[in-house]
Amino acid sequence: MIKVTLIGDSIRQQYQNRVEALLGKDFEVFSPSENCRFSKYIYRGLFDWSSSMSGSRIVHWNTGHWDICDLFGHGPFTPEGEFVENINKIMDILEGRYEIIIFSTTTPVTDNNRYNSNDVIKRYNDIAVSILQKRGAMILDLNTPLYPERDRYISTDTIHLSYEGIELCATMIAEKIKEAANSLKGKDAVTTDRRSGTDEGAPVLID
User: Fold this and answer.
1) CA 17 to chain centre
2) How crowded is residue 152: how many other Cβ atoms within 10 Å of its Cβ?
3) What's this model's pTM, rounded to 2 decimal places?
4) CA distance 76 to 11
């Protein structure tokens, strides 16, 4: 059995159960219970989730909608420079602990979304892919297949997946994870963090 971790925002919360079902009994799946929101939240959360992620050989993650959201007209919540820094820090941690990292691009929104722009989504997707591909992550493009029919695959709230969107994304993610798992066959499992997968001795921040 191969353990997989799924990290991401509310889009991940939509597809995770279907991904787990499609993966079947040969996989154990862990996902944080909370919405993982923006990239800096994920960076912080990797400390809290480390014990639950222990033993994972594949990590699938995404970040985007919260980072690019412009609620007040001041630009994306996470400026591009900070986004680059966060993506690299997250990858520093993941590549040091887990064997295969899969990054999925941010899904599109419908044209009447007031706060998230498909142009900005594309720009931030391109930034993330350019960084992570060079660092050895597997890339799964969820945006391109959904974009031409975004009114079909995105729900009436303009951002979350419709039922058909969930099914399409879950199918693509499960297939990518299975592809990654096939490359692990015959290899001995590498322990999380190349040691124990915990952050023993580090200070715990209390919420």
Assistant:
1) 15
2) 12
3) 0.91
4) 19
